[in-house]
Amino acid sequence: MITRNPPIQIENQLRKEALYGCIICGCPVLVYVDIIQQDKEVFIPENMVALCPIHRNKYHDNDLKEDLLRNAKLSPYNKEHQLDAFTVHSSDITVNVGKCKFVNTPRILVVDDFDIITVKRNPEDSRFILFDVNFFDSLNNLKAMLSENSWHSESADLDWIVRYEPRHLSIQKQSDTMLFDAKIDNEKEEITIIVDGFHYNQSLIQISQNEILVDKEEIAQDLKGTSVKNYEAGIMFQTR
Questions:
Q1: Above 90 in pLDDT, residue 159?
Q2: What's the confidence (pLDDT) of residue 66?
């Protein structure tokens, strides 16, 4: 199996046919792989599938066979288990971050005018949520990124753990204690985001259910307990 980055048009085609989740488990974090080996310059969507990083690795280890992927390509997990998908059916997208509530505000966390976390609707199917997340380490190295749920990380870095339960996504890098956690409340249909071990320009960023910390100091206290709607951005700050 070969893991490559196809043109964005093919990524979009593979995501759409998979109903925006791994065809095996529904995880919204996706990589795009060849079921059979083909020329590295050629991308044939009929021979490619959208998988999460965990199932990509399982297939790489020959734990998933070609016929299973072919069947799942035709009947992806999110088609058979629609209630498990990372979807919001309400008219608004509400994101909870450290006791702050942001409604229809895609740019959730902006540091030094750079977007660290963005949450938005999929324009092709508004039920599905798209994440842009940039994972920087303490030396300001970009270790991994989500770009509209497409996953990109260092090719030799196998330390990332992506877990998915119905409507609950967790991405963790154990060696750097880096964590991104997003969960949809089944009753309110609100998304709660928790972050640990994030950095930008060497500032440590942590978000719990109760507070937002930068270098261990709480910020955005004036927004705590409030609901902000249709803002350009949610949490914005400048590093020292």
A1: no
A2: 92
